[in-house]
Amino acid sequence: MNKKLILALTVIAAALVTLTAYKTKEQQQQEIAQAIAMKLDEYRIMKQEECTARVNTEARRRFDEYVASLPPAKPSKPGAKPSVTRPKAPAPKAPAVTPMPQTPPQDPQKQRGGAVQEGNVEQQKQRGGAVQEGNAEQQKKRGGAIKVEGGNN
Predict the structure, then answer these.
(1) Could you tell me where the beta strands, DSSP code E, fall in the chain?
(2) H helices within 22-120, ranges in order?
(3) Domain boundaries, given as residue ranges, for the chain
């Protein structure tokens, strides 16, 4: 019985190994595509670094040439900061502007319709919606003015 059990386990193990060892064509193509994508990314990064290095060296060379072509700096007083002179472009001429006639500023609030002028307090009291003095009962009856326990103090 032990021999049969060992033989059956060996056959099952061999079948499992053979079935899992071989991949389908789709799986193989996916793995190949992943490997190619990884290699392309590595190659792209490598070439990008090389290109950046070449551009930096060329830019440095051109900058050094430009600095060498500049006239030498004039000696200045000891302890003074060296000044860099740059050619100045001529300032553009401003077009001639004729001044507008000046009028005294006016407050737009005083000019609007229905506005109360200074010193006319009585007119303000008579406008619609204003609460008249001595009319406390009317004020108490307004919505929102009702005293609620624990609410308005």
Answers:
(1) none
(2) 25-69, 108-111
(3) 24-71
Identify the residue whose tokens are 């019985």: 1
Q: Whole-prediction pTM value?
A: 0.34
Retrieve residue 20's tokens.
């899992």
Distance CA 81, CA 30 (A): 66
77 alpha-carbon distance from chain centroid: 46
What are the pLDDT tens digits along the chain (153 aa)?
788 888 899 999 888 887 777 778 888 899 999 999 999 999 999 999 999 999 999 999 999 999 999 888 776 666 656 565 665 656 666 666 677 777 777 776 666 666 556 666 677 666 666 556 666 676 666 666 555 566 555
Which residue type sits at 84?
V
Residue 53's SS3 state is helix
Q: How far is CA 149 from the centre of its chain?
A: 50
Whole-Å CA distances, 124 to 9, 77, 140, 142: 106, 74, 22, 21
Q: Apex CA 115: angle with CA 111 and CA 116, to 5°?
A: 120
Between CA 80 and CA 73 the distance in angstroms is 13
R_g of the chain computed on alpha carbons:
46
